[in-house]
Amino acid sequence: MSSKVRQVNSKKTDQFKESVIREMTQFAIKHKAVNLGQGVPDFPCPPALKEAAVKAILDDINQYPITFGDKLLRQTLTEKYSAALGFSIDPETEITVTCGTTEALMASILALVDPGEEIIVFEPYYENYFPQTVLAETVVRGVSLTAPRWQFDPDELRQAFSDKTRAIIVNTPHNPTGRVFTTAELTMIAELCQKWGVFMITDEIYEHILYDGARHIHPASLPDMRDLTITITGLSKTYSLTGWRIGWTIANQEITTAIRKVHDFLTIAAPAPLQRAAVQGINLPTSFYLDLAQQYAAKRQYMMETLDKVGMPYNLPEGAYYIFSDVSKYNFVSDIDFAKQLLEKVGVATIPGSTFFSSKSRQANSFVRFCFSRRQETLEAARERLWQAKF
Ligand code: GLN
């Protein structure tokens, strides 16, 4: 390397590590472990979507689409989300199709938050949020969700808001805990957003994976939240299409204009044929969503029985497809050590809980996350190994 290069990486890159979630998949392959780590289904997506993608490619939908999204997809999303959010959305000015919710979040943060401004996140949080806020040179302000019920303390939330706060990220259903925020909780957050003029950037990627009659409340549907909310969701979890990288933002015209500028220069557009094929998914009948919830309920039940017999405690997930289990009673040095033993000795890959906490959190080292978005055979193989293991 030339001696003129001061150092390879930027100061920003120094502040975060590579993804533990994605790294665990590599370790799982290496150790031939049953992989209950990364939140990615190991079963196929609905056949109609595969056929629609092939058709779109054969129909020559293979060049750049309109940067902010295929027109037909935006129109289809408008119908679905106008009904869900309770107000009419303009597909020409209020929807942006992105490369997954990951890009939707990054584009929203870059478009709306200036360096040095604060973004509130509930902790534990999905791994991506921290590096994304670092990349945007913003400051994370954590508010704890406390085990075992994973609720926040209203006072702590109130104290987190200040003149420096620009946005709060609200992920419901929540990864990794499976919490589904109630109307009362979301209203409390919404009122603080209104008081301080703060944007609520949502991550609703698990919106259709709900249990025991839990209802997903779209934060934008709450009174007076239309102009403060950036609704973010996508195809990945609902249609088992994590590899297509299709997500979207819904926000008023002014916010959307800012997001679209960033999105254009980040990625130009999400894959054109897959956007067109996505229309097929959004138009699936209600029965598809009911089946999805039912299938996940069975998987959750199976996974809970597996952990119950082992004696690993957890809070019942209300949504999403993870169980965040408290393993502190096993007296390992750390959650990372526990996850490592589980991987190498038992042959089951999980995600160490500290991945979802800042290093300051006292809850950081007590949990591992099991993902049950898996075929029955995979869940059975994991059960066999866990039930034979000596903890
Ligand atoms: N959201 C998923 C998880 O939490 C997938 C993460 C990823 O690898 N993109 O595991």
In short:
41% of the residues lie in helices and 15% in strands.
Kindly list the characteristics that best describe this protein.
Aspartate Aminotransferase, domain 1; single chain; 8-stranded mixed beta sheet; 391 residues; 2 domains; binds glutamine; Aspartate Aminotransferase, domain 2; 15% strand; alpha/beta; 13 strands; 3-stranded antiparallel beta sheet
CATH topology of the largest domain: Aspartate Aminotransferase, domain 2
The termini sit apart by 48 Å
* Rg, nearest Å: 21 Å
Strand content: 5-15%
Shape call: globular
Strand order within the widest beta sheet: 2-9-8-7-6-3-4-5
Helical segment count: 13
Q: Provide the CATH architecture of the largest domain.
A: 3-Layer(aba) Sandwich
Spell out the helices and strands N to C.
HHEHHEHEHEEHEHEEEHHHEHEEEH
- Please, how many domains? 2
| Oligomerization | single chain
Residue-averaged pLDDT? 96
Distinct ligand kinds: glutamine
Q: What low-confidence regions span 5 or more consecutive residues with pLDDT below 50? A: none
Strand tally is 13
Helix-and-strand structural type: alpha/beta
CATH homology group of the largest domain = Type I PLP-dependent aspartate aminotransferase-like (Major domain)
Main pleated sheet: 8 strands, mixed
CATH class of the largest domain: Alpha Beta
Helical proportion, percent range: 40-55%
